[in-house]
Amino acid sequence: MNIAVFCSGNGTNLQAIIDSQKKGHIKADIRLVVSDTPDCHALVRAKNAGIPTLTVESRNFKAKKDFEAEILKALKKENIGLIVLAGYMRILSENFISAYKDKILNIHPALLPSFKGAHGIKDAFEYGVKLAGVTVHFVTKDMDAGPIILQSSVKVTEDDTEETLAEAIHEEEHKLYPRAIQLFVEGKLKIEGRKVKII
Ligand code: GRF
C-alpha cells in the first residue's frame, strides 16, 4: 500500500511514521509528503528520508476545487491508498474526502469529541481536565468528528504546564499514530456507523 502524509508544520508525527516504517512496524510505502506551505520543517524531514514532496499553496489557485485537483492528480499518479493527515492545517472539501472515502486518517491532540479544533491541548489544559489524550480517527466532512480508531489518555498533574502536557501528548501521538496506520494497512479496521471495529 502507498501512503501520502499531509503536513503543515514541524512534522514530528511524520518523523514517527517514517521511523516506524523503517523499523518494519508499518508495512507500506510512504510515497509522498504533501504540504500547503513551502517552508515547514516536515518537508525537511521528508527530504532527509528520501521521500518525494509536493507543496501546493492555496494562494496560487483561484478556487479550492483547483487547489485540491492539483493534489488529487499527484495522489492518483502515486497510486495512493491511504492519506494520513499529520498536522495539516487545511480543511479538505467534501468532494476531496469522498474521492478517498474511508481512506483518510487524522490525529487530534485531545480525547474527542471533547476539545475539537486547532487548540485541543490548550483548551483541555485551560478547562482543567485531569485526563487529556490523543485520538486517531477517520476523516469525514465534519471536522474532528469521524469514527474513532484509537484513543489514548494522558494524566494531567498539578505540576503540569501547557508545555509539559503538550510534550506528553506528542509523545503519545508518536506511539498511537503508527499503530493506527498499521491496523489500516493490515485491513483490520471495519467501520460500522460511528464505530470502528478492530478485526
Ligand atoms: C499534532 O499535535 C497533531 O495532533 C495535530 O497537529 C500536531 C502536528 O504536530 N493535528 P507535528 O507537525 O506532527 O509535530
Q: Write down how many β-strands occur, each being a DSSP E stretch of 2 or more residues.
A: 9
Shape: globular
Spatial gap, N to C terminus: 19 Å
Quickly give the structural class.
Answer: alpha/beta
Unique ligands = 5-O-phosphono-beta-D-ribofuranosylamine
Description:
This protein is α/β, with parallel strands linked by helices and 199 residues long. It contains 6 helices and 9 strands. Strands 3-2-1-4-5-6-7 form a 7-stranded mixed sheet, sandwiched between helices. β4 (82-85), α4 and β5 (104-108) form a beta-alpha-beta unit. α1 (12-22) packs across α6 (162-185) and α5 (120-127) crosses α6. The two termini are 19 Å apart. 37% of the residues are buried. The model has no long low-confidence stretch (mean pLDDT 98). 5-O-phosphono-beta-D-ribofuranosylamine binds at residues 7, 9-14, 42, 86-87, 107-109, 170, 173.
Quick summary:
The protein has 199 residues and is of the alpha/beta class.
What layout of secondary structure does this protein have?
Blueprint: E1 2-7, H1 12-22, E2 29-35, H2 41-48, E3 53-55, H3 64-77, E4 82-85, H4 94-99, E5 104-108, H5 120-127, E6 131-138, E7 148-155, H6 162-185, E8 189-192, E9 195-198
Parallel strand pairs: 1-2, 1-4, 2-3, 4-5
Antiparallel strand pairs: 5-6, 6-7, 8-9
Helix pairs in contact: 1-6, 5-6
This protein binds 5-O-phosphono-beta-D-ribofuranosylamine (GRF).
